[in-house]
Specification:
Layout (H helix, E strand, L loop, with lengths): L1 E3 L1 H6 L11 H7 L2 E3 L5 E4 L10 E3 L19 E3 L19 E3 L7 E2 L10 E3 L12 E2 L1 H6 L6 E3 L19 E3 L8 H10 L5 E3 L11 H8 L9
Parallel strand pairs: 1-3, 2-4, 4-5, 5-6, 6-8, 7-9, 8-10, 10-11, 11-12
Helix pairs in contact: 4-5
Length: 228
């Protein structure tokens, strides 16, 4: 078991070359922490890291998002390929712009209310039980309606994305390797997403439909040729 603590961060820093600086002083001004692929299974109290803006914790064994409420200056959070089943304890991160949660065990995208600056959300390839699909909490979608511009929901057994119509500023949608089937559902969505200029639907059943691509490009005023 490896827990991410202030002591661990200090031990992995270059403080030896900064004899005039105390550990506390160093931790207070640190902006980037990278502990990816370190067998981390829990996040301890890191409240001294007041200026932390980028946190890399991907490829670990973390099962719960905890002790990040202090990180009010965090803009980028990388938690992909962990053991997380619930998005929680992020609502105080008002400056968060990019959230990477791919490769976890999340069944419902929720708990993002209040993150009105979130521009990118990556939740691809959740490890779901056979037959289950990734779902969206309407409250979270409503909260992200004006901010979200990039959404990656690839490889999640999704068969309907009409609920995403509320994301009025969405510019890029990556939905590769899902179960999208009906062209009409996608036409409905494109009529709502007026700023969408890139959509990747590769390896969905709908791609086998006759002239599906031509139909969608005709419907969208912004998509142009960036439909895959």
């Amino acid at each position: 078991m490896v827990r991410l603590t202030l002591d661990l961060i200090a031990k992995n820093s270059n403080l030896k070359s900064r004899k005039e600086e105390t550990i506390s002083q160093y931790l207070k001004k640190i902006t980037h922490i990278n502990f990816s692929d370190k067998n981390i299974d829990a996040i301890e109290d890191l409240s001294l890291c007041k200026n932390l803006s980028v946190l890399y914790l991907y490829d670990n064994r973390i099962s719960q998002i905890a002790n990040l409420n202090y990180a009010t200056n965090l803009t980028h959070l990388y938690l992909q390929n962990n053991c997380i089943s619930c998005i929680e304890n992020l609502r105080s991160l008002k400056k968060l712009e990019k959230l990477y949660m791919g490769g976890n065990y999340i069944a419902v995208i929720e708990g993002l209310e209040g993150l009105e600056g979130l521009r990118e959300l990556h939740v691809e390839s959740q490890r779901l039980p056979p037959g289950e699909k990734l779902l969206f909490d309407p409250r979270t979608l409503h909260s992200l309606a004006k901010s979200l511009s990039i959404l990656n929901i690839s490889n999640n057994n999704i068969d309907d994305i009409r609920d995403l119509e509320i994301l009025e500023n969405l510019k890029q949608l990556i939905a590769v390797d899902n179960q999208l089937l009906h062209v009409k559902d996608l036409e409905f969505l494109l009529n709502k997403l007026m700023k969408l200029w890139k959509m990747d639907l590769n390896r969905n059943p709908v791609c086998l439909k006759s002239k599906y691509r031509d139909r969608l490009i005709l419907v969208s005023k912004s998509l142009g040729t960036y439909l895959y």
